[in-house]
């Protein structure tokens, strides 16, 4: 993330959707159509149990209202508790007690959420959903979530338009309120850039590749020609691919829901750039979030990394104090987003009305700005971006880079991405099966592409 290193705990790695996402409550593999049937049938039987009255403690609070315990299910660290927002809400609403349940990794959390939806029980009053999963729920099960877009106090105009659209179902209902986003920049080592004869001022660095991810690779060729011994221009081709492909509105799916990744401009252009970087020996051939990648930060073995706002805290933690001031941040070639989540309220939640009020308050512009200040979650609210807590933010570790301005500018230019139910499956296989086989195993780009496509086709056919 952006300011305190501890804040990197939630998005410290790209979310990997485990095979269990496609399994029913008894572990059997389910295709998309079969998944919808199972969830719909099970929910029909389970809603009566899940939609009990507000319940809670029968006693009343000092404000005369019945006491209610609200449960919030999240993955990793969302920061609400750490930033004191739960405590503040409880003080403002004495009848409310908030209990957060956190699962460390989304690949464990999301399958469990699907299982609880299918059982119609065990659901929290508020359930967080990661951006790579929101479309699947909005497509298959929009009716199983409260339409929070119509809730009192929710203002569509206070959200970045593309973020609002991500949780919008075909019938118009909005199943989740945006929490944070991951606008991208490029983090770079000033000392290594200087040794390779490149500029180090962040404005000048940004100009080197402004407007085109291909220019970032051009800079990589310049760096590689004079690279300090034992260093590479970038960590790995996966980061380049993610940055490039995320700067397009259409990548894996067309607007009508058609699967187009095999021929989309975004995927093919980004794949070709990644292959060019590998062929030019510009990458450190590292898999992101592996131990070797962490060690690369500590040892200074690569000079740049495509970095969403939330990754800054991770870099600070892994690079350590010995590298303080060596890292800086420049604008990415084109605006792009990586990461972000939503707060949803299931229709089967026990305390729906109070849960909607809490979700609305937690995602309001003022709270988003404070969460950024305390925990560095970059706001999805356009109004938050104008608040001084965000707009004027700098990062001491990254040479006092004006991260509020850099990432706010990026956030405003991010295209409204066309999401699909299996974006995560497609992206993960193109990177882990495709790109990494070329980088780490020496396979040809053609063979690696075909291997990735086969994995994806097999997964989508289940």
UniProtKB/TrEMBL annotation:
InterPro entries recorded: Bact_solute-bd_prot1, SBP
UniProt biased composition (Low complexity): 1-14
Coiled coil ranges: none
Record-given protein name: Carbohydrate ABC transporter substrate-binding protein
SUPFAM superfamilies in the cross-refs: Periplasmic binding protein-like II (SSF53850)
Residue span of region Disordered: 1-20
Domain of life of the source: Bacteria
Lineage: Bacteria, Bacillati, Actinomycetota, Actinomycetes, Kitasatosporales
